[in-house]
Amino acid sequence: MTASVADLEARLARVEKRLAKLEGAAPAKADYDAEAAAPTLSMGYAANVSTHIGRVLLIFGGAYLLRAITEFQFLPTALGLSLGAVYAVFWLFMAYRKGGLDSQHTNAAFFGGTSVLLTLPLLHEATTRFALLSGTEGVIALGAYCGAALLVAAVRRLRTLAWLITAGGIAAGVASLIANHTAVPVSVFLLLLGLGSLWTVYWRDWLGLPWLGAVGANLGVIALVVLAGNDRWPIDPRLPFVLAVALLSTYLLSFTFHSHVRGRLVGVFEVMQALLAGGIVLGSAIVAVRGGYLEIATVGIMGIVLGGGGYALAIAKHTRDLRYINFFYYSTFGLVFLLVGTGLLIPLVWAAVIWALLAIVMAWFSGRKGWVSLSLQCTFLLLAASAGSGLLSSGLEALVGDPSNGWAVLEPTHIIVAVATVACLFVPVAQHSDRWGALSGLPQLLVLALSVWGVGGLIIAASAQLLAGTGSTEPNLAVLAAIRTAILSVASVTLAVSSRHRRWPEARWLVYPVLVLVGIKLFVEDFPHGQPATLFVALAFVGTALLLVAPLLKREPGPNADDEGQRTEMP
C-alpha cells in the first residue's frame, strides 16, 4: 500500500512539473533524454555532411568503374558511354524524386549536382576524345540535358542546381566552341540557356541567376560577331546580326510577358540587359553593313518598328495602371530605337528636324496627360535634334569660338530646331509630380538652357557677321566680345523675368550661372581684346543686368493656375 501511494505521489509530481513548464511558472530544466537526442557538431551537421560526401564519392566510384570497364574494352566504347550517360541522368532523376520531400531537399541538391558533374565532362569527351558525336550533336545533347536539369531545378525549387547547371552549361559551351569550332550552335545554345535561366527565375522569383545566364548569352553572340571576321571559322557573315536580333527580341518578349502578363515591375536586370542587347545589335549591324552583307535601311526600319513597339507597350493601360517605372522603361526604350531608326534611314540633319517637331508633340502630350516622363523625353528629343543638326556645335562656336579658325555656319535646320526649342517652352507641360519630387522641373530647366545656348548662339553668330566682320579675314575681336557679353547679359535678365511666370519657375536657377560666366568672360576676353567703346558697352550691359536680376528674383512667381500643364500623379 505504501509503495502504491509513493508511486502516485511521484507521478503527480511529474505532472505538476510539466504543468509548471507549460504555464511558465518555473524555469524549464534540462531534459537528459532531449539533450541526448539533440544534434551536435559531431553527431548532427558533421554527420550529415559526411553522409552526403560519402554518397557522392560512391556515385563517382561507380562512374569510374564504368569508365574502366570501357577503357579495358570489356564493353564497346559506344555502349560504355551510353551506360555512363544513363548513369549520370539517373541521378538527375533521383534529384527530382527526392526534391518532392522537404526532408530530402538536401539529398536532392547533392544528387543533382553530382549528375551535372558527371554529365558535362562525359558530353565533352564524347565529342572530343571518343568522337562519337559531332560538335553540333554534342551541343544539342548538352542543350537537352541543361533544359532537363533547369526544369528539375524549377519544379523542385533546387536553386543550387539551377546555378550549377547554368554556370556549368556556359563553361561546357565555351569548351565546345574552342575544341570543335561550333560557333553558331554554341551561340544558339547559350542564348537558350540564358532565356531558360530567366524564365526559371520568373517562375520561382529567385535573384541573381538571370545575370549569369545573360552573361553567357551576350558573350555567345559577341563571340560570333568577332569570329565571323576570321577566315578560319566557317560562319555566314549575316548570322551574327540575325542572332543579335534574336537575342534582343527574345529577351524583350520575355520582359514584356513579365510586365504585361504577370503584372510585375521591371528591374535593374531588364534595363541593363536591354541596353547590352541593343548595343550588341548595333555593333553587329555596323560590322555587317561595312562588310556589304546588310543594307543600312534594314537596320533603320527595324529600329523604327522596335521604337513603335516600345511606345505601344508604354501607353498600354496595364502599363500606366501598374507603376510609373514600367512606363518610363518602355517609353525610353521606344525613344532610343526611334532615334536610331530615323537617324539611319534619313540624313541626320533632316532627322534632327523630325526630332524637334516630335519634341513639340511630346510636350503637348505631357501637358495634356500630366506625364513628367514625356516632358523629359521632349528634352531628350531636343538634345538629339540640337546635336544632330549641328546647333550645339555652332552655338558653342558662336559663344566661345575663335573666328580666325572659321565662324559658326547658319543653316536653316539650325533655325528650325531653335524655334522648336523655344516653342516647347510655350507648350504647357507637366511640371509637378509626387513621384518625381524636386526633379519634376529638371526637363524644363534643360529646355531653358538649350534655348539660351541655341538661340543665343544664333543671334551672336548673325550679329557678329554684320557688326564684327567674322566672315572676313580680319574680324574685330573687341566688337565680337562686346556682342557676346551683351547677348548673355540680356539672356540673364530674360531668364529672371521668365522665372516670375508659372511655366518657367526653373529659370531662376540659370540666372546667376549665366552671370558668373559673363563675369569670367569679361576678364578672359573683353579686357584683353576690348577697346574703350566696346568695354563701355560690355560693362553697361553687365551692370544693368546685375541691377535688374536681383529685384526680379526677389519677387514671388505668379500664381500657379490649375491648367493642363500642372496636373500630377501620372508617370
What is the topology?
Layout lengths: L1 H22 L8 H6 L3 H31 L5 H22 L6 H23 L7 H21 L3 H22 L2 H22 L4 H19 L11 H23 L6 H23 L5 H20 L1 H6 L1 H22 L2 H22 L2 H18 L1 H10 L11 H15 L15 H26 L9 H22 L9 H22 L2 H23 L17
Helix pairs in contact: 3-4, 3-5, 4-5, 4-6, 5-6, 5-7, 6-7, 6-8, 7-8, 7-9, 8-9, 8-10, 9-10, 9-11, 10-11, 12-14, 14-15, 14-16, 15-16, 15-18, 16-18, 16-19, 17-19, 18-19, 19-20, 20-21, 20-22, 21-22
Q: Could you describe the 3D structure shown?
A:
This protein has 571 residues and is mainly alpha-helical. Among the domains are: 54-180; 460-566. 77% of the residues lie in helices and 0% in strands. The chain has 22 helices and no strands. The longest helix has 31 residues, at 41-71. The radius of gyration is 36 Å and the shape is elongated. Residues 25-47 and 559-570 have low confidence and may be disordered.
Structural class: mainly alpha
Helix share, percent: over 70%
Give the helix tally.
Answer: 22
Order of helices and strands: HHHHHHHHHHHHHHHHHHHHHH
Count of distinct strands:
0
Low-confidence stretches: 25-47, 559-570
The best one-word shape is elongated
Rounded mean pLDDT score: 82
Distance between the termini: 88 Å
Strand content: under 5%
Q: Main beta sheet, described?
A: none
Radius of gyration, taken over Cα atoms and rounded to an integer in Å: 36 Å
Task: Write a concise synopsis of the structure shown.
The protein has 571 residues and is mainly α. The protein has 22 helices and no strands. Among the domains are: 54-180; 460-566.
